[in-house]
């Protein structure tokens, strides 16, 4: 088992150029399948329905990249002013620290020279990694739409191919498992998009209240990075906090910016995500963290993005088999093991459930099943 697991990890690592576009295409295909199915019910040809769905995704991503590009170009024009203010703040902080701790301060010219020399030594390494990353992104962008089209167009053929490996009496279980995987992926992807939109709005409100420049850009940027659990929000908050600190010269303002992101992330992790995505992806935090680390070690940043949905798919597969069901229980959330289940007839709206989460109130539980009456013993 250990040898097989080691070989599997080795193959997954070596074939990342092939597997990553395939996995992204599978996830996006499952996300787009309801739209394609609905268009086909409206008598659209399958090829036209698939092409329309892919075109909508491409237009959405193009609009997102256009927005980011325009904001980055605008921000680039202010870099000389930010750099000059950063130099002044650097000198002020050095003078204050040198008076307090009695050391010889460095001039900013010395810092720049040392940084440039270190950059020159590592320039070839950085250039090679940048070129590899760029080529990988371009190849992924080119291949993913092709894979999506093939998966959606030949989905019936692929399902029949999978059934040929399964005995006839077990095909119902396999079909149920496949439907569960599709439901999990669709629920996670749609829920993640909803969370990103809501978190973007909350981030923008907080940053605009603090008077942060390019508040909308930083709000959306940090929300998109939140697809990487626990790490994306940290990376997304550093740049606006640094720019706010340079612009205002106040460390308190920079910390307040970080505080806004942390508060919004706390609300997202403890209130929004449980309401929107936890019903579909019931993984405990320990599983998510371990999956995040393993994904980063295996495939880098793309692996971190894929860690949660792939872990949810693995949990569905483990739950489908009696021999592996305990492992699925181990990966699941604590509420999965409760003897009492939530009431499936609870049709309250989102705001009511949101208020219950804020108050820490448990959802309505399903009524206990009534036992049939015991037969009375016959008298002799």
What can be said about this structure in brief?
It holds the Pfam family AI-2E_transport. The protein has 380 residues and is mainly α.
What kind of sheet is the major sheet?
Answer: none
Number of strands: 0
Measured by DSSP, the beta-strand proportion falls in under 5%
> What number of domains?
3
Order of helices and strands: HHHHHHHHHHHHHHH
Euclidean distance between termini CA atoms: 64 Å
Structural class: mainly alpha
* Tally of DSSP helical segments: 15
Q: How confident overall, as mean pLDDT?
A: 75
Q: Which ranges are low-confidence, i.e. pLDDT below 50, for 5 or more consecutive residues? A: 337-341, 368-372
Pfam families: AI-2E_transport
Region (Disordered): 360-380
Organism: Hymenobacter setariae
Keywords: Cell membrane, Membrane, Transmembrane, Transmembrane helix, Transport
């Amino acid at each position: 088992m250990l040898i097989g697991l080691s070989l599997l990890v080795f193959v997954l690592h070596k074939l990342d150029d092939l597997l990553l576009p395939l996995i992204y295409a599978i996830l996006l295909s499952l996300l787009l399948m309801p739209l394609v199915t609905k268009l086909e019910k409206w008598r659209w040809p399958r090829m036209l329905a698939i092409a329309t769905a892919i075109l909508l995704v491409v237009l959405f991503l193009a609009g997102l990249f256009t927005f980011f590009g325009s904001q980055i170009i605008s921000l680039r024009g202010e870099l000389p002013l930010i750099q000059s203010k950063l130099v002044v703040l650097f000198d002020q902080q050095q003078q204050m620290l040198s008076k307090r701790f009695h050391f010889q301060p460095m001039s900013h010219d010395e810092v720049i020279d040392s940084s440039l020399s270190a950059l020159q030594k590592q320039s070839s390494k950085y250039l090679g990694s940048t070129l590899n990353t760029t080529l990988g992104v371009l190849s992924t962008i080119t291949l993913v739409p092709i894979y999506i089209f093939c998966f959606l167009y030949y989905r019936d053929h692929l399902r029949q191919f999978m059934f040929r490996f399964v005995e006839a009496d077990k095909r119902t279980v396999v079909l149920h498992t496949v439907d569960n995987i599709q439901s999990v992926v669709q629920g996670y992807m749609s829920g993640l998009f909803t969370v990103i939109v809501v978190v973007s709005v909350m981030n923008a409100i907080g940053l605009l209240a603090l008077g942060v420049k390019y508040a909308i850009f930083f709000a959306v940027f940090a929300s998109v990075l939140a697809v990487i659990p626990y790490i994306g929000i940290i990376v997304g908050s550093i740049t606006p906090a640094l720019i706010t600190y340079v612009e205002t010269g106040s460390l308190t303002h920079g910390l307040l910016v970080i505080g806004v992101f942390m508060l919004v992330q706390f609300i997202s992790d403890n209130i929004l995500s449980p309401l929107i995505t936890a019903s579909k992806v019931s993984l405990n935090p320990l599983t998510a963290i371990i999956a995040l680390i393993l994904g980063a070690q295996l495939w880098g940043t793309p692996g971190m993005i894929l860690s949660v949905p792939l872990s949810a798919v693995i949990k569905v597969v483990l739950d489908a088999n009696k021999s592996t069901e305990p492992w699925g229980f181990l990966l699941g959330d604590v509420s999965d093991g409760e003897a009492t289940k939530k009431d499936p007839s609870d049709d309250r709206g989102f705001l009511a459930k949101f208020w219950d989460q804020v108050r820490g109130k448990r959802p309505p539980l399903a009524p206990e099943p009534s036992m049939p009456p015991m037969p009375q013993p016959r008298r002799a």
